Amino acid sequence: KQEVTQIPAALSVPEGENLVLNCSFTDSAIYNLQWFRQDPGKGLTSLLLIQSSQREQTSGRLNASLDKSSGRSTLYIAASQPGDSATYLCAVKGGGSGTYKYIFGTGTRLKVLA
Amino acid sequence: DGGITQSPKYLFRKEGQNVTLSCEQNLNHDAMYWYRQDPGQGLRLIYYSQIVNDFQKGDIAEGYSVSREKKESFPLTVTSAQKNPTAFYLCASSRDNVGGDGYTFGSGTRLTVV
Predict the structure, then answer these.
(1) How far apart are CA B19 and CA B33, in angstroms?
(2) How is A8-56 classified by DSSP, letter by letter?
(3) CA nearest to A46 within chain B
(4) Nearest residue, CB atoms, A100 vs list B90, B98, B106
(5) Which one of A95, A102, B39, B103 is most buried, by most CB atoms within 10 A?
(6) Tens-place pLDDT, residues A78-101
(7) From the first residue on, what is the mean pLDDT of each consecutive set of 10 residues in chain B (114 residues)?
(8) Looking at chain A, which residue has its C-alpha nearest residue B111?
(9) d(CA A71, CA A28)
(10) CA–CA dist B42, A107 (Å, integer)
């Protein structure tokens, strides 16, 4: 059964710092991995989608990498801003039973201090 | 703009009452999903539908029911059999339920038992 873990659970950094959020998964037979952002009381906003055949995806100050063999993905945020404060979730589709449904991590709650 | 609309944003349920959460999408997506989010836990799948007039149970379907009479709509009913319904409910859709596509989420409904 696929399990997704995100460490750390919470992170507080000063504005301008570059930071890395981690996501690990137990079964490497995935179809893709998606990173989301969630603001308090809101729905999830898709940030980046990485297919199993890809190594990374970039959007603006965000870069997500995928290493299937080691079961890991990282979300790199460059030059962090207070507006980046939110919870970041990763979700993995596939693995093990061949399910096409996403399994979610519990998220990393990020606070960027001005 | 295409997207997913969930209503209401806040919902209060009395003990023993059934309530229905609405989810409508205009993305022409075939697959739709309902998730439940509780503090400190990852999103858990309640029900999903890959096509009109068909749906499957997710990991925590007990106490919930759904219908999929139209491609655009996937309402969720929280029945009186659901003993702990207070949570944040999220609806998502994808173009289909096979490997490559990511999810688009609605803004959520917060259900509280009073």
Answers:
(1) 18
(2) -SEEEEETT--EEEEEEES---EEEEEEEEE-TTS-EEEEEEEETT-SE
(3) B104
(4) B98
(5) A102
(6) 999 999 999 999 999 986 655 678
(7) 91 91 96 92 92 94 97 96 93 82 94 91
(8) A41
(9) 6
(10) 7
